[in-house]
Amino acid sequence: MALMITDECINCDVCEPECPNGAISPGEEIYVIDPNLCTECVGHYDEPQCQQVCPVDCIPLDPDRKEDHDELMAKYQTITAA
């Protein structure tokens, strides 16, 4: 699954630089994650780095974007091949 940022986001700016795919960016009110770029850090790290640094724990899995490990790896390979 891709990750998402919930309304609990406090715009602390710590998640954006941690994303190896550039999937996190400032939204209108809170940070947002581009599901087309989010691989949950598969291919880069063992765990999603944004979740590790978030001080308010507001980055859960997006239930509308179910992807298994193989799909996330394929997305990673597509992103990094460019």
UniProtKB/TrEMBL annotation:
PROSITE patterns on file: 4FE4S_FER_1, 4FE4S_FER_2
Sorted UniProt keywords: 4Fe-4S, Electron transport, Iron, Iron-sulfur, Metal-binding, Repeat, Transport
Bilayer-crossing regions: none
Location of the 4Fe-4S ferredoxin-type domain: 1-29, 31-64
Keyword match DNA damage: no
GO CC entries: cytoplasm
Keyword RNA-binding part of the UniProt annotation: no
InterPro entries: 4Fe4S_Fe-S-bd, 4Fe4S_Fe_S_CS, PSI_iron-sulfur_center, YfhL-like
Pfam families: Fer4_7 (PF12838)
Gene Ontology terms, MF aspect: 4 iron, 4 sulfur cluster binding; metal ion binding
Gene3D superfamilies, per the entry: 3.30.70.20
Name assigned to this protein: Ferredoxin
Gene source species: Halomonas cerina
